[in-house]
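Build the 3D complex.
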Amino acid sequence: MAGHIVQSTQITMNEQQIAIFKQCLLEKREQLLAFAKTGDEAAQTVELDQSKVGRLSRMDALQQQAMSMESNRRREIELQKIASALQRIKDGEYGYCVSCGDEIHEKRLHIDPAAPQCVDCAEKTHQ
Ligand SMILES: [Zn+2]
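Done.
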């Protein structure tokens, strides 16, 4: 047993706050998974319609398919983010920037509970 024990006095965010964020993340994940299901059904409907209505709406169907692929991709990324945030909660590292180790501002976590980086590092990454 070599792991260090984090005392509750040492962590800035208390367990109750983390529990709230965790609940948020779990709900978000549920929503995304539910969307994924309806999205798949919609994509299938498009394909069926396509054979009925012919060439003109084929473009529409393809466009819709591309759009749904794009939103699938974004959903995957979001689910990944949520999964790693939940992992950080497990590891007791939640609320700290994965790049610099600084605390992530609580306000930021309220907006995006899955945010892995502090504002500074997120901005650097996007530049
Ligand atoms: Zn940072």
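Residues 68 and 74 are 10 Å apart (CA to CA).
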